[in-house]
Amino acid sequence: MEFKDYYATLGVDRSASPEDIKRAYRKLARKYHPDVSKEADAEARFKEVSEAYEALSDPEKRAAYDEVGRRYRRGQEFQPPPGWDSGYEYSGRGFGPEEGMDFSDFFESLFGRATRAAPGAAQRGPVHAAGGDHHAKIVIDLEDAYRGARRTVSLRVPVTDAQGRTTLQERQLDVNIPKGMREGQHLRLAGQGGPGSGGGPAGDLYLEIAFRPHPHFRVDGRDVYLDLPVTPWEAALGAQVDAPTPDGRVQLGIPSGSAPGRKLRLKGKGLPGNPPGDMYAVLHIVAPPATTEASKEAYAALARAFPHFDPRGAWKA
């Protein structure tokens, strides 16, 4: 997927004002509108122009695009940086395309990855003179969801100046992470959203929870999975092995005759809750290397003990 230079698509500089962007869009939209244009590629160009305007006319989208775009040039291979949308505070519904609009994979991969508003967290209307609700995604450690934690999070807040240019400013908040949080759940911080007007109250801030990638565990809802390496003899003969969980280590019984991929369930050892999730240890059999004469003889003895064993026998059948 190639990086799209939306400024080049509209023919404006990166320092263009909102009025410059609007004028450029209107001119190109008239030129390429499929109902009136005689250009051979009018429909495709009109979509490109509309997509660029959607990204650059919204101050928050533009600020996010500018931040990511500093590291890319037009046509360069692009993948959104991991977790790029975490810690970005925004107002309204989020970055997804407007209903009915069909934008490119590039647009979807960038803005479509951002969070949506929490259910029931609609932005307050000006009739109440209250500030609007804001939203952000934060990344926490899996262990924080097991035990609960208090963390300081940094948020990048779009701020628009008198010239209409939006830049990102950072603010820090101390946040209590309750025990049992799942990915996609929201924390509500009352009064930490947009400021009210005319003495009205500030809006709320909704933080969507995401888990930082873990070197050992993966999460599916409330359940947690661990790829557990075992030796061939532990799988064949059975054993007690020391295994990690996000809440501490446990002794896990490996049944004799276990095959690769077998799932061992640790009931209630998943994410805390009512009811709690489960943890599953998925067995991976790891054979030791034959690097010494003794280890080579051990493998030779194993081959003599199983002269008719053929792991590829099913292919021959």
Mean pLDDT across all residues, rounded? 86
Stretches where pLDDT is under 50 for at least 5 consecutive residues are 93-100, 113-126
Q: What is the C-level CATH assignment of the largest domain?
A: Mainly Beta
Query: What is the CATH H-level superfamily of the largest domain?
Result: Urease metallochaperone UreE, N-terminal domain
Tally of separate domains: 3
> Rg to the nearest angstrom?
27 Å
Largest sheet, in brief, is: 4 strands, mixed
- As laid out across the biggest beta sheet, the strand order is 1-2-6-5
The number of distinct β-strands equals 12
Please give the count of helices: 9
CATH architecture verdict of the largest domain: Sandwich
- Helix fraction, binned, reads 25-40%
Principal-axis shape: flat
Give the structural class: alpha+beta
End-to-end gap: 43 Å
